[in-house]
Amino acid sequence: MEILTSVVGKVVDYTVAPIGRQVSYLIFYKGNFKMLADHVKDLQAARERVFHSVEEERGNGKEIERDVENWLEKVDEVIETANQLQNDPGRNNVKCSAWGFPNLILRHQLSRKAAKISNNVVQVQGKGTFDRVGYLPALDGVASSSLTRGSENYETRESLKEDIVKALLDLNSHNIGVYGLGGVGKTTLVDEVAQVAKQGKYFDKVVKTEVTKNPDFKRIQGEIADSLGLRFDEETIFGRADRLRQRMKMEKSILVAFPKLDTLKLSSLLNFNKIWDSNYDSMHNLTSLIVDNCGGLTYLFSSTVVGSFKNLKHFEISNCAMMEEIIAKEGNGALEEVHFLKLEKIIVKDMDNLKTIWHHQFETVKMLQLNNCDKIVVVFPSSMQKTYNKLEMLEVTNCALVEEIFELSFKESSSVEDTTHLKEVTITGLPKLKKIWSGDPQGILSFQNLSIVKVKSCEGLEYLLPLSIATRCSHLKELLIKQCINMKKIVAEEKESSVNAAPIFEFNQLSTLSLHNLLGLEGFFAKKHTLACPSLKEIDVLWCPKLTLYRTLSTRSSNIRDDELSVSTQQPLFIVEEV
């Protein structure tokens, strides 16, 4: 009995309900058309409201969101369909048939259409709520003014423009440079190329800004942001830079034009494995390059791009964990001897895997700072001998494996001794350092311009200066040695000299001498010598237990002449004449 009841119920559901719905179309004919007219009226009001918002946004220079435009088109389509049904001539024939009875078939068809369209109208109106109607488009910041030119110049310019556009479309080209003498129209040419790129839709975004010698970073950020349709909430330069970087990552391809770029800083580009392509020739104006935290880079320059950096004066690199060398050769060929022409300053710090610092290409460098590079063993290999003659300031700090600063080669004899320009040396925190110079550079290199020498926390260092350097330090003004616990002498003789005369160390300009925590220091030089420091004003000696600072020389001593000082096995640092 229960099974029979269930079957009867389902039969009712599948027969009676549809029949009732079809009958309702006949009964509620007028009601369905009235409901359709009401819903259309509501939809028209909603369309008008959205349209007012659209006009307001357009008046503010905004573009209309695509979904809003699609909705308005759909509204027009649905209302048009409803109007066609309401004005259908067949509606005049539903009252009666040819025999005086209502035309039930036509009445059913029209009523059913009215109910269906009415439902569509309600659905479309329900989708007419938007969080935002319009948006600010990226500004077209690449338009350039037209200039009147001669036909020859115009043809040349058009040819250049075509070449640059071709380079832009080359997937292997990441950077394209345009450079030349001032006033020849480089900036205008870049403007025109950018306009072509934008019109041709070669890139998702085209951005142009000018980077001058003294850059206004907020202006530059603002110009790039305007081209990308970005509005900053951040006030600081660094905050705006971070926001700008996030925005630029949203684009698949972007053309950024810097007509007068002279300073470039690359930071936190963790996925970069190469900065410039091998045929890059566009860094003509660049004077300063800073690269930080670019973990994918294995080198900074390739041998083929060095010549492009004709005006580079300073570069700084730090926190690039994968980098093993600064300049790398490309292919199987020998490293090309193309030098930086104006490079003066190099700063390298916090480089965990860097094994080589100095290259032949650095011959013009005047200052080198090296800090926290734990794979470096020798700062200047013997193969680079005589390539650092113009170096004036050297600072090497906290490099755990450095054993030598200057590795010298004595295989090639030369009748000419090159004079270096090195004036200031600072060496700190090199526990493995055995020698600053691997040998006495006499006859090879002269370091007679040294004026400031500071050495601290070099536990393995047994002496500071080779004999030939110490005897020619007439310009030395400041000497500071601290926490070198194994240092026994300040000056040492690498090989036994055939000359028996006592060396004379004339430190005529030395004004400051500081010796701290030198537990093994016994004296200045192991053999008989003369030390002259006529300009000395400040002596600071602390915790040097084995050092005899001075001894008084009596003028009444008959066995000592004025021009010769008697020394014991451990000659004191200074011998003071008794007055």
Verbal overview:
The chain folds into four domains: 2-135; 139-261, P-loop containing nucleotide triphosphate hydrolases (Rossmann fold), CATH 3.40.50.300; 263-376; 392-525 and 534-544, no CATH class. The relative contact order is 0.04. The protein has an eleven-stranded parallel sheet, with no helix packed on it. It has nine helices and 28 strands. Residues 7-12, 141-152 and 555-569 have low confidence and may be disordered. It has 579 residues and is of the alpha/beta class.
State the total count of DSSP E strands: 28
The level of helicity is: 25-40%
**Over the alpha carbons, how many angstroms does the gyration radius reach?**
43 Å
Span from first to last CA? 140 Å
* Tally of individual helices: 9
Strand content: 15-25%
Order the strands across the largest sheet as they lie in space: 5-6-8-10-11-13-16-19-21-24-26
Global structural class: alpha/beta
| Largest sheet: number of strands, sense, barrel closure | 11 strands, parallel
Uncertain segments are: 7-12, 141-152, 555-569
- Can you tell me the number of structural domains? 4
What is the residue-averaged pLDDT? 77
- Described by the principal axes of the CA atoms, the overall outline is rod-shaped
Domain Disease resistance protein At4g27190-like leucine-rich repeats: 360-484
Family: Belongs to the disease resistance NB-LRR family.
Pfam family, one: LRR_RPS2
InterPro entries: At4g27190-like_LRR, LRR_dom_sf, NB-ARC, P-loop_NTPase, Plant_NBS-LRR
